[in-house]
Amino acid sequence: MLIYVYTALLSCVFVVSASMGQRTKQQQWALWVLAFLIMWLPAAVRLNIGVDYSRFQGYSELYTIYGSGSSIVQGMDIGFIVLIRVLWMVSKSSQVLFAVTSAFIYLLILRAVKRLSIHPALSITLFFVAGFYFETYNIIRQWMALACVFNALEWIVPQTGIQVIPTHKHHDDKKTSEVENIYSGFTCFMRYAAWVLLGASFHVSALIFLLLWPFYFLKLNSKRSLVLLAGLFVLGFVAKSTGKIVLSGTRFGRYLYDGASVYAAVSPHWDSIIVMSICLAFMVWQLRDKRELDRWGNTMLLLAVLGCASALAGLYMPFIFDRIARYFAPFILLELPFAVMQEETEYKRYAYILAIMACWLLATFIRVYFGGQFGVLPFQSIFFNA
Q: How many domains are there within the chain?
C-alpha cells in the first residue's frame, strides 16, 4: 500500500514544482515527465492487480486470444484489437499490454490537465485522492476512452484550440467574419470528434460525447443548471419507461427489467450520488453571482450537472448504465479547480482545497475498506495484493 502513497506524493510534488512560475520551460517539462514516470511504473509492472488483469477472462488471457488471431463471442472494440495485434508482434508477454495502456492513459490525462486545468496541481492531487488513479487499474478500456475525451474538451473553446483564421480582408466585414466563425466552429468540431472517435475505438460508449456537442453551447448559470438537472432526472425516468415498451423482446430491452440479470438490476451507488451532488452544489454556490458564463464555464457546469444526473439515475436505471455514469465523475479534475479559483480571497481558496481533499479522502477510504472486493472496481485487490 505504501507504494501508492509514495506514487501519489511524488507525482503531486513534481506537478506542483512544475507549476511554479520561476521554472524554465525545460525544467517544467522535465518535472512533468518525472510525474508521468512515477505514475506509470507501478501500473506498468503490476501483477494480478485489478479486475482487468485476470478476472472474468482478463486482459492477460485476451492478449493471447486476440494476439494469436482468435476472438471471443462477446467481441471487442476495434481499437483495442489493433493495439493487441501490434503489440503481439513485439512481445508475447501480456505485461507489455499493461505497460502501453498505462502510458497511454497517464500521458493523455497529464496532457489534458496541463493544457486545460486552471490549477494543475489540484487536478493531479484529485486524480489520486478521489481514487481515479486506481480506477485505471480496473477499467482500462474505458479510461483509455476517457483520456481521449479529456483532450477533446480542448476544442470546445476556440481560445484553447484553433484561433480565428487570419485574413487580409477588412476585419470589420461582417460577412467575412461569419464565414470565418463557421469554418472555425466546424474545424473545432472535427478535431473534437476525432478525439472522441479515437476513444470510442477502445470503448464504444464514448460515442455519447458526440451527442453532447450542441449542449456545450447552452447558456447556463446556477439556477438554469438546477432546472436542467431536474429535467434530466425526469427525462431519464420517462426514457426507461418508454424503452420498456419500444424495446420489448429485443436484446436491449432485457436490460430495462430489474430481474432480467445482474446488469439489469437497479443498484444505486449512494457514495457517488452524495459526492457528485456535493460537487455540483459547490459549483452552483461558487457561480451563484454570475448571470452568464463563458463557453468554458458553461462546459464545466454542464459536465457537473451530467455527473450528478447520471449518479442520480442509478436510483431507477439498470446497473449497466453505471458504465456511462463513470464517464462524468472524473471531470471533477477540471471542474473543482475551476470552481475553487472563482473565489477571490486567497485564504478561502486554500480552505476550499483542504475541505475538498478531506472529503475525497474520506470517500475513498470508505470505498476501499467497505466497498467490497468483487465489484467493477475492487479497490481492495489493488491495495492488499500489491
A: 1
What's the pTM value of the predicted model, to 2 decimals?
A: 0.85
The answer to whether residue 330 sits within a structural domain is: yes
Query: Is 212 a domain residue?
Result: no
Q: Structural domain of residue 279, as residue ranges?
A: 219-342
pLDDT number for residue 61: 81
Alpha-carbon distance 267 to 67, whole Å?
Answer: 36
- pLDDT of 93 above 90: no
Q: Please spell the DSSP secondary structure of 220-287, one letter per residue.
A: --HHHHHHHHHHHHHHHHHHHHHHHHHTTTSTTGGGGSTTS-TTTS----HHHHHHHHHHHHHHHHHT
Which residue's C-alpha cell is 468554458? Answer: 296
Helices 332-340 and 270-286: crossing angle, nearest 10°?
30
Q: Is residue 12 part of a domain?
A: no
CB 48 within 8 A of CB 385: yes
For the chain, what's the residue count?
A: 386
Cell numbers at 230, concatenated? 431536474
Query: Which region among 33-37, 76-80, 183-187, 197-201 has the lowest average model confidence (pLDDT)?
Result: 183-187
Which residue has cell 496541481?
121
Q: Indicate whether 298 belongs to any domain.
A: yes
- Using one digit for the tens of pLDDT, what is the confidence trace for 166-198? 333 444 444 444 444 555 678 889 999 999 999
Cell of 288: 451563484
